[in-house]
Design goal:
- It contains ten helices and eleven strands.
- It is an alpha/beta fold and 300 residues long.
- The protein has a domain of 127 residues: NAD(P)-binding Rossmann-like Domain (Rossmann fold).
- Helix 2 crosses helix 10.
- The longest helix is centred in the first third of the chain and has 23 residues.
- Bound molecules: ligand LMY7XDAE.
C-alpha cells in the first residue's frame, strides 16, 4: 500500500484564503483590522524564521502585525512589561510570545501574564482549563492544525477511532488529546518512558507523533491503513547537506499507512495558518462579531 501524502501546505493556503476573506469583511463592514503581536526574545535561528513567516503571512491576509524583538539578556520583568503594554493596546487582538524563551525566563509566568482573550497560542492556564472541560477557548495552533487535517483526511470518521499520541508536551501532546477526545476518539498518550511503544502504536487508527526524535517511528510499527500526523521537525545533516525530517520514518511509513503528513510541508504550515485563524477569532470575539469558520465549526 502507498499512503496518500497529506499536503499541509495546500490545505494551509486554503485556510489562509478563508481568513483573508473574513479580514476583508471585518474591514469593509466594521472598519476593524485584526492585530497580531509577536514577541521574540533572543536570536534562535529557527524562531527567527517562524516569527518572520508569521509577520509575512499575517500581512498577506490583511492582519496588522506588531513585532517586538528583544535582546537575549532581556529580564523577565522587562518582558512582562511588554506583555502588559500589548494587553492594554486595543489595536492588538492576539499576542504570541515565541518559544523557547531564554533559560533565565520563567515561560509559565510570561504565558500566564497574557490576557487570555488575546492568547492566540492557547497556552494560558485559563484556556488550557476551558479546553479540558469542553468550554469555548483559544486552542493551541499546532494541535488545531492537526485536527483540521485529520477531519479532512482520516477516512471513516474520527468517532470511535483509536488515536495514539506520542508526546506529552503542553504545546502539542496534551491539547491534541483533549481535541481528539472531543471528537469521540479513544485516546492513548504515549511518551519516552512508555513500555513497548511499537505495540501501542500498532493499535492506532490515528498516530500523532510529537516526540522530537528524528525518524523514531518505523514503518513496521504502524497499523496498515492508519492516518499518520508527523509533528516532528528535526534538522539532520547527511552527506554534508542539512534537511528536515519528522519523528516518523516517512519512506517506510508511506508503504503501510493510509495517509501521512510529510516533513516539511505537513503540519508546520498549518501551525501558522491556525495562528492567523485564532487572531481573527479573537478579534471577532472582542467585538462581539460572527467568527470565521474554524473554531466555531469545531464547537470550540
Ligand atoms: N509561541 C509558540 N512558540 C512555538 C510554537 C507555537 O505554536 N507557539 N510552535 C513551534 C514553532 N512554530 C511556530 O511558532 C512553527 C514550526 C514550524 C513551522 C513550519 O512551517 N515548518 C515548516 C518548515 C520550516 C523550516 O524550514 O524550518 C514545515 O514543517 O513545512 C511553523 C511554525 C515552537 N515554538
Amino acid at each position: 500500500m502507498t499512503a496518500t501524502t497529506i499536503d499541509g501546505k495546500a490545505f494551509a493556503a486554503t485556510l489562509r484564503a478563508q481568513v483573508t476573506t473574513h479580514v476583508a469583511v471585518l474591514k469593509a463592514d466594521h472598519d476593524i483590522v485584526p492585530g497580531l503581536a509577536v514577541v521574540l526574545v533572543g536570536e534562535d535561528p529557527a524562531s527567527e524564521v517562524y516569527v518572520r513567516n508569521k509577520a509575512k503571512q499575517a500581512g498577506e491576509c490583511g492582519i496588522r502585525s506588531f513585532e517586538t524583538r528583544l535582546d537575549a539578556a532581556t529580564s523577565q520583568a522587562e518582558l512582562l512589561a511588554v506583555v502588559q503594554r500589548l494587553n492594554a493596546d486595543p489595536a492588538v487582538h492576539g499576542i504570541l510570545v515565541q518559544l523557547p524563551l531564554p533559560a533565565h525566563i520563567d515561560a509559565n509566568a510570561v504565558l500566564g501574564a497574557i490576557d487570555p482573550t488575546k492568547d492566540v497560542d492557547g497556552f494560558h492556564i485559563s484556556n488550557v482549563g476551558q479546553l479540558s472541560v469542553g468550554q469555548k477557548s483559544m486552542v493551541p495552533c499546532t494541535p488545531l492544525g492537526c485536527l483540521l487535517l485529520l477531519r479532512q483526511f482520516h477516512k471513516g470518521g474520527l468517532a470511535g477511532s483509536h488515536a495514539v499520541i506520542v508526546g506529552r508536551s503542553n504545546i502539542v501532546g496534551k491539547p491534541m488529546a483533549q481535541l481528539l477526545l472531543r471528537e469521540h476518539c479513544t485516546v492513548t498518550i504515549a511518551h519516552s518512558r512508555t513500555r513497548d511503544l511499537p505495540s501501542i502504536i500498532g493499535g492506532a487508527d490515528i498516530l500523532v507523533a510529537a516526540i522530537g526524535r528524528q525518524e523514531m517511528v518505523r514503518g513496521d510499527w504502524i497499523k496498515p491503513g492508519a492516518t499518520v500526523i508527523d509533528v516532528g521537525i528535526n534538522r539532520v545533516t547527511r552527506d554534508g547537506r542539512t534537511r528536515l525530517v519528522g519523528d516518523v520514518n516517512f519512506a517506510e511509513a508511506a508503504e503501510v499507512a493510509g495517509a501521512i503528513t510529510p516533513v516539511p510541508g505537513g503540519v508546520g504550515p498549518m501551525t501558522i495558518a491556525c495562528l492567523l485563524l485564532n487572531t481573527v477569532t479573537a478579534c471577532c470575539r472582542a467585538h462581539h462579531l460572527p467568527e470565521p469558520a474554524g473554531l466555531a465549526e469545531l464547537g470550540l
